[in-house]
Amino acid sequence: MSDDKPTPNTDEPVVDVEAEKAAKIAAAKAKAAAAKKAAEDAPPKDPWEEKPIPPAHSDAMDDEDVAALEDLVVSADLFAGTVTATVEAEKILDVCRFLKDERGYDFLVDQTAVDWPEREEGRFDIIYWLHRHSDSKRLRLRAIIGEQQTIESVESIWGAANWMEREIYDLFGVIFGNHPGLERILTWEGFNGHPLRKDFPVEGIDTGAAIYPDVYPPGGGPIVTDEGEGA
Q: 225 Cβ partners below 8 Å, 6+ apart?
């Protein structure tokens, strides 16, 4: 085997790396300078309004889906392009079944709650975001319930409500009747309180339970006993 090294091709042009780098830098600076000059020469933008006017609320009882519900709706409001229909909590199943079967709202986008601890008419708003795929229309439902009041689960209508209602139960303490498995989903069974209630202390509630007990229950987290010990 020959140890001779291949002879380099001297016909190939030699690239001046430093010169090429300098040219790219100069081009970038020229582009930035041109953009700066264009911005300086552009006419001034209109100033922001000092007090922008927010979207106005308006009555939405004439919305076609709301009107179809007839006396099942207590009130309806249009704000920022979205209709919110307030319905009686006792009629939530009738409302949801009708909207799915007769009005085509085939998807429950989200379900949540809002806590109003000082409100006399009922502490919690239960909110349902509905979507109709045929025309991409959305409708928000609101049902008002008291602190000790049970509201029926809509899991039998939209299966997606299963975990959503478990989350509301966990974080707000709202009970959903006829739910197939109403258990905590983010905290553990035995957790003290409901963290998204507005009267829940930001620092949490000290139960005396060990943060990292030796044994965790299958559901995760320490189960707190009456004596305040981690199970």
A: 190, 231
